């Protein structure tokens, strides 16, 4: 035993000597460089943005974060959260802003009106559309398919293992409210709503349908990065009129256009710091967002890099968002 | 083969105080077990009937006996007769339902947890059928386990353990793990563990049943030797009669939880109280067990009473040669008093009976 | 002997089988007549009062969180402690801390430490594996993400064990407590995480605490179960021996029960680690750092390659953790067999030398950038991602024709008929049939249990969704068992096959489902069949392993005897090995079922609809929360129903 110990210690000594020799030719030490980045200027403080899980959202958030960090000297934290969880975060003080909100009247009612923990910070300038879409090849081959009146004629095309003897209407991004069951019923369409269950399922289905030229009709929305790759064609439903969607079971009209907006925590708004000013002032267009989304989704840039590139190219737009007093 | 009067009461007036005395012990498993011993009606039922009536198993029923200091007391019975339960009741590994267990006059059932632990640490030790060794400890650490939990220091533990290792013949295996040993060796470890604490009483629950016959014989001899050397009181459970006869000063036979008979080996063989016991002892080599007092007869008028004299406790086998060699029947004499005589016929009846059975 | 036993069972089974068949026939006949009546259908946007009530409850809790003392003093304290702990672990290996731009221990230190711990716990081979595995993580370009995941997993596992092992010990010692805790554990394992993810962030805020607790809820049960199992299985003799020597309870526990049960407990630790890793992607939805985020982000753009690369890192972590804990579990035995004194000497030397080396490596990685930051920029990761992307593209492009055919066929022949009977029958007819079958299979007690479960299902308001999910679950479980038996027997009979298949199974089990959803969607479109395939991929490995172990455990003498009497391989399998591995088959069915059910939610993401979709939608839309919770409960109830039924049936036929 004792002998072992000695061998061990001796071995360790040798090892140690070698290691020290190695370290002698060392290299840069941790903390020598860098660490200058946190020289926060301004009075911005911290700014927490929720990141909801879709690319368009990420584009908004990345650009805002880039500007807040570089121009206002904020310390930006991004938190990856689903919508509801993000809104909950307003109340607990863990989230300052949600920077692309699709309607969500339920959440607005709960957090803005009832709990009074959130307030709206105005439009993002981006216009959202929800509706029924078909892949381009289908619209080309059957031009009249893009009118709901003709859908029953083509119902057979859309039959799948899931829809039985009816046509399949692929639905079901779980984050969005859908009126499709009511629409199918009230428009007397020979279709069955099938719930894909995730955005991924919808995107993959449309992509595949265009690639393999298979028929597909489903729920989709714009802006969405896929639309820059596959130019889905929207199907005309009976036009939306104010109040036509008042009774859920009786809906027989198209979805309204959404003015995508920003929601911030009440505390954040009341403090009225530069970051809030920035969020409030932030607006851009569908094209702007699509461009950044394309950088991320197709060019596989990181969100930060994509934002940096866009901000670099659009200094004038960015300037308009900055709070009055900032440089 | 007719039974002579047999003393059933084991401990006579003149004998020393018993180490253990067990009185009216019951152990009933099942719901409302404590009701059973109290109700004379339920007590009267057979085990089977009790099971059907109440769903309870009466493992031990109204058992009582005394064990004298230094004695090897054997409890025997078929599988399921309640032996293990009984021996566990003594140290309350199984809590008796009712009754009394006295150790040197102290009521064990009244002992609190601490006292009970003391008793278990210092007075009793047990050897188990399936050894119950700790697989993750070496032999030496298994043996010193009892000392360890008493708080004995490491060095002293090792010293004591080494002594016992020698005593049970395990030298050279101290560093092995139990699963590297044969069954016999493992049980030696069990034995050593029990001896390490230097208890007053050793309890054995079928310690050799799991061993093959040759090793079993070795181990039995071992116990005999140990008993000679350390002279401890032992309570030994077995279902093997030859083992019981070999080791036991006295033997208690159990059936369905009840005591059937208590006595020395020759008493059981010579005067079984019922068919159950008779069945049990049928295959015993009677000549090896019976003593002359069991086969002697009263002298008849025509007997010539000038043969050699022998004591009544001489085993038949040892007397055979003398009886057959003598011209006249052998006189069985105690303290000069003639108890009876044994002739060729009586001897041959035993020896021949045994051959016929074999 | 075996033949007698088997024919004995055969003789009895048909009578019970015939009764069940009769019940089924009657059910079918009535279904034909009553189709569509009383089916308790509920539209996707419709809510029952129960759902509404659950919504309100959720809102009320949320609204009271700033005033309720329970929040202020209880949950907040728990959160603080857990947060601090996780952040500490993170700052050691994953996140910049203490004013440094990098964590305290850089990659070199972590690799060395991992190797050293593996060496100490297992041996040289696992140490090598650990070092290689961890280095590979860095080469994938995922060093920081992996360390975040590792930090979170280890923290969750540590906390799980802190509570799990004592609870397990208690459950092992007390039958009564075991009875109470078992349903709780079932609940923890079958309740879909999605259901409690959002409420958790209400209780514990967004951050490490919530992620840890979400992981913990799912991961702790195996440790508890296996600890209890280990304690329970310590031979009675051994415990008695200790008691007979006057050991106190604490002494018996510490010196006898725990050391003897150690191997089983380590197995529990192992299972807990695996379970914790499988929560990584889901926890990412509430901002849990690490590889899960990478996977989720990649999926937003259908970037299968990147998702796979991150998934692979999870698999690598899982395999390293698994092999190290397994090796730790068997080391004691191996050390014993190896009585060579030289080996002990080498080991002591190795420990001291390794310790010194590790200390140096840690110091280097603390001090120098090259040892702190993983140097290469994920070249391997890039090629993996590219390769996988190309491969999936090819598969999607060339195979989807065939696979769609398979899907259509399976759906038409298996899923559709089953589902239309289950969802089309009046609810009371289904309930009556299930209760009747329970009586036949498990007796009155089982029937009462089934009746209660069915009542609860009706009460959730999601009867029809539950029936649809049940149909898919049954088909998936059947497929799992077919695979389990075929592959399991193969592995059980050939250790060669075992060696090759096992790592594949490990990978299938730990690769996050999210990674293969995209290719599956491409191959089978959004459909129930896709969900079934995903469930089978996840559940089959468990069933296969259990069957393989069961078959291997059949006594070689019995197999020898069968061979000696001239049985063909087929006869040996069907007449000896499978009947004798019955217990394993039952267990495999049971576990297969539980695992399939735990994939119901993932199924909801790929087109299975029904309960899975309800849960997902409940997580995503506030006003559907109550419904999602009810759906989660319905999944638990389905699990309990099926579990108890199979157990009861197995116990019955076992006795017959
Ligand atoms: N814990 C228990 N619960 C219920 N019944 C028990 C329990 N322990 C023993 N019994 C029953 O008590 C009876 C006596 O058992 P015990 O183990 O004492 O018999 P034994 O004579 O030692 O038999 P063996 O020779 O097989 O060891 C048996 O019928 C047994 O079933
Ligand atoms: Mg016994």
Automatic annotation (TrEMBL), chain A:
Segments forming domain ABC-type glycine betaine transport system substrate-binding: 47-311
Gene3D superfamilies named in the record: Dipeptide-binding Protein, Domain 3, Glycine betaine-binding periplasmic protein, domain 2, Periplasmic binding protein-like II
Signal sequence bounds: 1-23
UniProtKB keywords: Signal
Pfam families cross-referenced by the UniProt entry: OpuAC
InterPro entries: ABC_Gly_betaine_transp_sub-bd
GO cellular component terms listed in the entry, alphabetical order: ATP-binding cassette (ABC) transporter complex
GO molecular function: transmembrane transporter activity
Protein name: ABC transporter substrate-binding protein
Lineage: Bacteria, Bacillati, Actinomycetota, Actinomycetes, Pseudonocardiales
Automatic annotation (TrEMBL), chain B:
Keywords for this protein: ATP-binding, CBS domain, Nucleotide-binding, Transport
SMART domains assigned: AAA
All residue ranges annotated as the ABC transporter domain in the record: 45-281
Gene3D superfamilies registered for this protein in UniProt: P-loop containing nucleotide triphosphate hydrolases
GO cellular component: membrane
MF GO annotations: ATP binding; ATP hydrolysis activity
GO biological process terms on file: glycine betaine transport; response to osmotic stress
Family assignment from sequence similarity: Belongs to the ABC transporter superfamily.
Organism: Umezawaea endophytica
The name this protein goes by in its record: Glycine betaine/L-proline ABC transporter ATP-binding protein
Entry-linked InterPro entries: AAA+_ATPase, ABC_osmolyte_uptake_ATP-bind, ABC_transporter-like_ATP-bd, ABC_transporter-like_CS, Gly-betaine_transp_ATP-bd, P-loop_NTPase
CDD domains: ABC_Pro_Gly_Betaine
UniProtKB/TrEMBL annotation, chain C:
Chief localization: membrane
GO cellular component: ATP-binding cassette (ABC) transporter complex
Keyword Cell membrane: yes
Compartments where found: Cell membrane; Membrane
Keyword field: Cell membrane, Membrane, Transmembrane, Transmembrane helix, Transport
Annotated membrane topology: Multi-pass membrane protein
Gene Ontology MF annotations: amine transmembrane transporter activity; carnitine transmembrane transporter activity
Domain ABC transmembrane type-1: 146-325, 466-646
Top-rank taxon: Bacteria
A Pfam family it matches: BPD_transp_1
An annotated GO BP: choline transport
Record-annotated membrane-spanning stretches: 17-34, 101-120, 150-173, 193-219, 265-286, 306-325, 346-366, 427-458, 470-493, 513-544, 592-612, 624-642
Stretches assigned to coiled coil: none
UniProt record similarity statement: Belongs to the binding-protein-dependent transport system permease family.
Protein name: ABC transporter permease subunit
Lineage: Bacteria, Bacillati, Actinomycetota, Actinomycetes, Pseudonocardiales
